[in-house]
Structure to design on (314 residues):
């Protein structure tokens, strides 16, 4: 990754070198792309696209560096090229799961599902590598040289262990999230009630009673497929379960909202707005982050047109 970044920066970050490289790509009509992607550590999500573009333009980059007189021995190293292909594929997979965890309106249940799906996918890719199946690694599959499968199996296992360790809190919430998604699939009421009572500081007996009642409620079973299922739950009859559902729904599963607020603030607080006060900033941020859309037509109808009272003179 470091070598690829250094090479691309030597071309993409310099105007003359970038222009010469673009001319070379234009002369070779077979090239699908017209430029390289500049990678920055701040926007780490671009790493997958950066490596993919680098991989696709590797012959053109090699030819350009040869003409420039740079050392291109690294591009003849089969081990390095194979490692580059593997890193390109795995970062693209990581980018996909990262995008699934972003966006407005994401609940903790959706994020747990995305993380669990990716962990299952990692285990699947490990098993497939053991059988030398590279269907999930197109860049690696394009390399015709032999490579050590065990090395990449170990790398994938390490990523899986990191997901298990860093996202351990998600696994603790998984049983509660599954119950809130579909309460009637619960098999061990006592175990679930103990977990819920411990997690949300509630009385275990009252939680057990609520679980037994809601699982046996025939009327609620008929509405189980409705997305607004918990809106039908009586607050007087199931106060604890309603509270648990509300807390799970309002949990912040990622820092996306906070990061998007900083991005909006950076756009609003520019050098062209030197009279921006704290009150103005607060109002602008609220407008930028809120999903509320005013009814402009209704407000316009409520406005009364004021005709001029002065008489025109001849």
């Amino acid at each position: 990754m470091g070598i690829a970044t250094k090479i691309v920066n030597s071309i993409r970050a310099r105007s003359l070198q970038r222009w010469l490289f673009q001319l070379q790509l234009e002369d070779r009509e077979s090239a699908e792309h017209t430029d390289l992607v500049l990678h920055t550590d701040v926007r780490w999500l671009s790493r997958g696209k950066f490596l993919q573009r680098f991989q696709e333009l590797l012959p053109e980059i090699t030819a350009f560096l040869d003409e420039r007189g740079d050392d291109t021995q690294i591009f003849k190293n089969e081990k390095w090229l194979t490692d580059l292909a593997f890193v390109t594929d795995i970062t693209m997979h990581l980018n996909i799961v990262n995008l699934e965890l972003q966006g407005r309106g994401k609940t903790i249940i959706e994020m747990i599902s995305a993380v669990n799906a990716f962990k299952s996918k990692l285990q699947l890719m490990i098993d497939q590598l053991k059988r030398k199946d590279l269907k999930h690694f197109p860049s690696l599959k394009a390399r015709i040289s032999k490579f050590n499968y065990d090395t990449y199996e170990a790398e994938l296992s390490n990523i899986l262990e990191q997901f298990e360790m860093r996202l351990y809190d998600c696994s603790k919430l998984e049983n509660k999230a599954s119950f809130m998604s579909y309460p009637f699939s619960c098999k061990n009421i006592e175990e679930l009630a103990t977990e819920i009572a411990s997690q949300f500081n509630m009385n275990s007996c009252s939680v057990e009673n609520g679980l037994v009642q809601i699982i046996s409620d025939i009327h609620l079973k008929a509405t189980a497929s409705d997305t607004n299922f918990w809106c039908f739950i009586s607050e007087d009859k199931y106060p604890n379960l309603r509270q648990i559902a509300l807390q799970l729904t309002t949990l912040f599963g990622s820092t996306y909202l906070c990061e998007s607020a900083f991005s909006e603030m950076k756009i609003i607080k520019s050098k062209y707005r030197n009279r921006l006060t704290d009150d103005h900033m607060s109002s602008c941020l609220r407008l930028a982050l809120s999903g509320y859309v005013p009814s402009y037509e209704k407000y316009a109808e409520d406005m009364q047109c004021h005709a001029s009272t002065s008489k025109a003179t001849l």
In short: The CA atoms of residues 173 and 247 lie 12 Å apart. The chain has 16 helices and no strands.
